[in-house]
Amino acid sequence: MATVALNPPEAEKLSKLQSATKGLNQISEKEKAGFTNLVARYLSGEAQFVDWSKIQTPTDKVVVPYNSLASISDDITQTKNLLDKLVVLKLNGGLGTTMGCTGPKSVIEVRNGLTFLDLIVIQIESLNTKYGCNVPLLLMNSFNTHDDTLKIVEKYSKSNVEIHTFNQSQYPRLVVEDFLPLPCKGQTGKDGWYPPGHGDVFSALMNSGKLDALLAKGKEYVFVANSDNLGAVVDLNILNHLIQNKNEYCMEVTPKTLADVKGGTLISYEGRVQLLEIAQVADEHVSEFKSIEKFKIFNTNNLWVNLKAIKRLVEADALKMEIIPNPKEVDGVKVLQLETAAGAAIRFFDHAIGINVPRSRFLPVKATSDLLLVQSDLYTLTDGFVIRNKDRSNPSNPTIELGPEFKKVSNFLSHFKAIPSIIELDSLKVSGDAWFGAGIKLKGNVTIAAKSGVKLEIPDGVVLENKVINDPKDI
Question: Which of 27, 181, 257, 333 has its Cβ near the most Cβ atoms within 10 Å?
């Protein structure tokens, strides 16, 4: 473990924590070391803020425009050789709790009865079959999703995709009051622990033995993405560009809209490319950070990383990503989770770049309002790829706000006999107990607000254009 300079009270805190952590036999020695290292860095008060005056806008060499990438030829052998260097890794540690689901979020049905995971496997399978290559799929689980995922992936045993799973680290939550691990206080169940963010992907890949196994098979790059981002598909032009230019790390960024103002952005800082997150911005600069004029792009969390570079940096303990303190409460006890983000690692890699990709590569499903978009006629499904309908003239998606009655997936689905046509929709706001029939078309700006205690039914086949509906007579 790297030594970190601490003042006497903090050093004493760390010493007590290290003693307590030694007794936690549920986790490995590597996890214990990783955890205490993270806490030591946190206690040292490492500078989290950036010097605002040193921020520079990245040039096109640093954030490469997607349309400037060379297109690879249709030569099947050349494409196979490219793809044989690639591994796809999906971050699969999240539960679908925000959408009222139990188990891994990746098993929520997205379209035509297929889950996120089904679509991912179909996409990779179509590449492997078409080009005769072997692109494996890695799933990084957390202790929350591990058991369920192992059962789920059994159904793909006959697919043309090698699937590997590994777990990210499991760290104990910290009790704020005395800075001791929560499991030492008798909280030995799952609530005593947490997965420390996707910044852990690099060391977890190494600690699991998967990294060395992949390198031994001649793999060179890993494409890392959130399992709930339907736009995060393999892109041969990006892979080819990175190999040709020896870029060890690439972050896909896309133009910011007003919906993305809190997203991290890429900056040039002291001669290197760096991710700037809102947490690192002093209060007086937050409004400037959110400006889509000054900071025009944001991080999609689609990352391409060289495997040898990961090994070199993890072995040197060089990946010191900014720490994100995440306060929580467990049974009335205030606790702290210290986390890191994979995007923040960009500044440690050589020849790191961003690529400014089309918005179509960022299609996350974080809530049922997103589910409505991807299940509608706004998208079609081809070979596992969710593709935007060309009939929509507006380049932006409609904004959709659904009330709490629609928050859980099961409730959302029960309120729609069929998903309405939204190809000509600009915005939809739904509140209260509204129910949708089949064959409905929504156009322009539509607001549906059912009065308290009233069940408002939108009948089959109606067309609602620029309407505010409060009760049945408004239809």
Answer: 181
Q: State how far the alpha carbon of 296 is from the alpha carbons of 267, 314, 356, in Å.
A: 11, 32, 10
Least confident of 141-155, 186-200, 314-328: 186-200
Would you call 444 helix, strand, or coil by DSSP?
Answer: strand
Letter for the amino acid at 46?
A: E
Which pLDDT score is estimated for 189?
Answer: 83
Angle at alpha carbon of residue 267, lines to 301 and 324, rounded to 5°: 55
- Decide: 73 and 236 in contact? Cβ < 8 Å: no
Report the candidate in 131, 126, 148, 29 with the shortest Cα–Cα distance to residue 79: 131
Q: Do 136 and 233 lie in a common domain?
A: yes
The single residue listed with the structure tokens 């303990």 is 317
Last residue of a domain, one of 298, 332, 361: 361
Largest CA distance in the chain: 72
Q: Which of 361, 376, 407 corresponds to the end of one domain?
A: 361
Q: Which helix (H) or strand (E) holds 401?
A: strand 399-402
Q: What is the pLDDT of residue 74?
A: 82
For residue 128, the Cα-to-chain-centroid distance in whole angstroms is 24
Q: What are phi and psi of 314, to 5 degrees?
A: -70, -45
CA-based radius of gyration for the chain: 24
441 in a domain, yes or no?
Answer: yes
Pairing of strands 265-269, 55-56: antiparallel
Number of folded domains that form the chain:
2
Structural domain includes residue 170? yes
Query: Residue 398 maps to which CATH number?
Result: 2.160.10.10
